[in-house]
């Protein structure tokens, strides 16, 4: 198995593909997909990069690993395919957008529309075995996605990183906060949101405000 990734990312990530850890990771993933049901579909593993080229990234949202049930994961964190019931975290994301920006709750949970506007929807782990959350963690994906975050931090300016929950907040140390904006809050999962750590963070209006400050178009959430 090899990484099929948009060519705009190659100057920053090509070295990773040649490293031993990444070759071992691809061998592991290939075997997992051969012997088990895994998600997202193999051709969508690098969707986040292919839908959002390096030069177009404005905002980075970091998730943990893909949804692990059939027909859900499509390679974009928090996103599900059209027609699929919205998972609880996504429901709470849309509720916060509704309250923050007075936008009607959407029918589709497919966040491809976000990715096409320059939002990199990056899971720290890009694959998972069916019905086994975290099953592909600590196999090398985190080394790769940490490199992605570092390369973005080094080579771009005025990005907005949205770090939701304890796991994502750990990534803050990879980001140069003199060049970029980091917004943090609790995770949108019901456990966190119902304790008051998610609702009211206004990350969506804040992101648009920050984009406008550097003469970028606001996002259509």
TrEMBL record:
The active site is at residue 65. Coiled coil: none annotated. Its main location: cytoplasm. It is an enzyme of class 3 (hydrolase). Keywords: Cytoplasm, DNA damage, DNA repair, Glycosidase, Hydrolase. SMART domains: UDG, UreE_C. It comes from the Bacteria. It is found in: Cytoplasm. CDD domains: UDG-F1-like (cd10027). Its EC number is 3.2.2.27. One of its GO terms (molecular function) is uracil DNA N-glycosylase activity. Excises uracil residues from the DNA which can arise as a result of misincorporation of dUMP residues by DNA polymerase or due to deamination of cytosine. This is Uracil-DNA glycosylase. It comes from Neotamlana sargassicola. The gene is ung.
């Amino acid at each position: 198995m090899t990484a099929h990734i948009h060519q705009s990312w190659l100057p920053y990530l090509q070295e990773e593909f040649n490293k031993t850890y990444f070759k071992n990771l691809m061998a592991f993933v290939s075997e997992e997909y051969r012997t088990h049901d895994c998600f997202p579909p193999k051709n969508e593993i690098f969707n986040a990069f292919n839908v959002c080229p390096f030069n177009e990234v404005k905002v980075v949202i970091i998730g943990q690993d893909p949804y692990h049930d059939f027909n859900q994961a499509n390679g974009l964190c928090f996103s599900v395919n059209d027609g699929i019931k919205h998972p609880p975290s996504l429901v709470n994301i849309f509720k916060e957008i509704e309250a923050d920006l007075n936008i009607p709750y959407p029918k589709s949970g497919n966040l491809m529309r976000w990715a096409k506007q320059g939002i990199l929807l990056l899971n720290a782990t890009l694959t998972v075995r069916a019905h086994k959350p975290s099953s592909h963690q600590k196999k090398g994906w985190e080394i790769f996605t940490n490199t992605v975050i570092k390369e973005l931090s080094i080579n771009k300016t005025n990005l907005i990183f949205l770090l939701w929950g304890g796991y994502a907040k750990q990534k803050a140390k990879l980001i140069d906060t003199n060049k970029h904006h980091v917004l943090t809050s609790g995770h949108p999962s019901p456990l966190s949101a119902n304790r008051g750590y998610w609702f009211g963070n206004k990350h969506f209006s804040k992101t648009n405000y920050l984009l406008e400050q550097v003469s970028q178009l606001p996002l259509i959430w």
